[in-house]
Write a structure and sequence with these properties.
Elements lengths: L2 H6 L8 H14 L8 H18 L1 E6 L4 H4 L5 E3 L1 H10 L4 E5 L2 H10 L4 E3 L8 H4 L3 H10 L5 E4 L4 H5 L3 E3 L4 H7 L4 E5 L2 H8 L5 E4 L12 H10 L4 E4 L5 H5 L3 E2 L2 H11 L3 E5 L3 H7 L6 E3 L13 H10 L8 H18 L7
Parallel strand pairs: 1-2, 1-3, 3-4, 5-6, 5-7, 7-8, 9-10, 9-11, 11-12
Helix pairs in contact: 2-3, 3-16, 5-6, 6-17
């Protein structure tokens, strides 16, 4: 049977000596975060997916919260939501497989209308994206006429279409200040909004959306961990509650947190964000001990190697966005990318 036939047929996937040899360099990098007993389960899918990518002219984009076998095994490009948005516009692939949640796949499709964008599981959602609708924004615009809307990218295409400019946790302050106004509607993450409000003189009108992963962390939990571990560097995502951020040594986006691990020089780190990120970052920092107060995102964990494999085999779960909605949403996304290039945004 040919390699392609084997890659297309899940029943033919097996941990053979050939698969072991082909995937050995990958496992060597991640052996400290994936037990050896698990590798024979992952390796056949990794080998088949990497083969199918070449056959389909496909690229796999993986968010930092994906599990290590995905993040290090099959991802061609990886990063936080801002990085994935940029990468989606730069790839020459015909097919984008977005290993993240649905709003990220929508974003990739909005920025690449001519490409096929797949998500391995259509149910991979987001509590923040579910917390607000386009109708909610229209009501806010009626209540606050003339006030520009800045929306976190963790939102649906419908919401982005009602938005003046999008932002991520990495560039939220920069985006808000790029508008050159005194007052902004900032949606939907209340905790990120509080964080931004402390770093700008712009008045923010906030929504009450929260991330179901980050809102579960507590300041008491961090204080308890500091008592247990000496020289503990605490890195927190700004989607966490304010009392949690107050206990942190560093607050920033997932990309910022990754950089901070290298910059801090600490031998013991805790990342107050989705659990899998610590595993992925640990690969590059074998001398750092990562303390893991594990909160898993149930939506991110819907993405698995078998589902990625099936997405590529059948080109299934294509993400489509109504062209009229996409056109309006694309404006808010492109404005965000303009801010990253140092341009001023006019709402």
């Amino acid at each position: 049977m040919s390699h392609l036939s084997s890659a297309l047929n899940p029943s033919e996937l097996a941990y053979s000596p050939e698969v072991a040899a082909a995937t050995a360099p990958i496992y060597e990098r991640i052996r400290d975060v994936i037990p050896a007993i698990e590798w024979p389960v992952h390796a056949p899918y990794i080998e088949a997916i990497n083969h199918l990518k070449r056959e389909r002219n496909a690229v796999v984009l993986a968010h930092n919260y994906q599990t290590p076998e995905i993040f290090h095994g099959v991802a061609d490009l990886s990063g936080d939501s801002l990085a994935l948005a940029r990468m989606a516009t730069e790839t020459d692939a015909d097919v984008i497989v977005l290993c993240g949640v649905h709003f990220m796949a929508e974003t990739a499709k909005i920025l690449n209308p001519s490409k096929t964008v797949l998500i391995p599981d259509l149910e991979a959602g987001c509590s923040l994206a579910s917390s607000i609708t386009g109708a909610d924004i229209r009501l806010l615009k009626e209540k606050y006429p003339g006030v520009p809307v800045v929306t976190y990218v963790n939102t649906s295409a419908e919401v982005k279409a009602e938005t003046d400019v999008c932002c991520t946790s990495a560039n939220a302050v920069q985006v808000v200040e790029s508008l050159g106004v005194d007052r902004v509607i900032f949606l939907p993450d209340e905790y990120l909004g509080n964080y931004v409000a402390q770093r700008t003189d712009v008045e923010l009108i906030l929504w009450h959306g929260h991330c179901e992963v980050h809102e579960r962390f507590t300041a008491q939990e961090i204080r308890s961990l500091r008592r247990r571990y000496d020289d503990l560097q605490v890195l927190a995502h700004p989607e966490c509650p304010p009392d949690v951020l107050a206990e942190a040594d560093f607050v920033g986006s997932t990309a910022g947190m990754i950089d901070a691990v290298g910059d801090a020089g600490s031998k013991r780190v805790i990342m107050i964000t989705e659990c899998s990120m610590s595993d992925n970052v640990a690969v590059a920092h074998p001398d750092v001990e990562f303390i893991r107060p594990c909160n898993l995102c149930p939506h991110m964990k819907r993405i698995t190697l078998p589902k990625i494999h099936q997405a590529l085999v059948h080109l299934q779960h294509e993400v489509l966005v109504d062209p009229a909605v996409a056109e309006r949403a694309r404006v808010s996304m492109e404005r965000m990318l303009e801010v990253g290039r140092g341009q001023k945004v006019m709402a």
